[in-house]
Amino acid sequence: MSHIAVEVLDTLSDRERQVLSYLAEGYTYLSIARRLNLSPHTVDTYLRRIRGKTGISNRAHLMILALQVSREAGFDPLQG
Q: Which pTM does this prediction carry?
């Protein structure tokens, strides 16, 4: 992971990283909310905060960040 990516990830809370990890695993907002016992609106709020902290403006870049977070946590959805 690049130095810049590490710095960006360091700005995220543990819960934001958790939401991103589930997103990388293919969970929908609703299924993430159910797994974390949250409202889907709360999941959306976490993702909006992540976009604000990172400057990400589209879903494709959000997914790239989600994959980076998952790899850092030891899960690589591309490897299964």
A: 0.78
Contact yes or no for 80/21 (Cβ under 8 A): no
Residues near 9 by beta carbon (within 8 Å), at least 6 away in sequence: 1, 17, 65, 68, 69, 72
In angstroms, what CA-CA distances link 30 with 7, 8, 24, 60, 63?
29, 26, 14, 19, 16
Q: HSE on the CB side for 64, CA within 13 Å?
A: 12
Q: Which of 47, 59, 60 shows the shortest CA–CA distance to 17?
A: 47
**Mind listing the pLDDT tens digit for each residue in 35-74?**
999 999 999 999 999 999 988 888 888 888 888 777 776 6
Taking the alpha carbons at both ends of the chain, their separation in whole angstroms is 19
Torsion of CA 47, 52, 55, 59, to 10 degrees: 20
Other Cβ atoms less than 10 A from the Cβ of 52: the count is 9
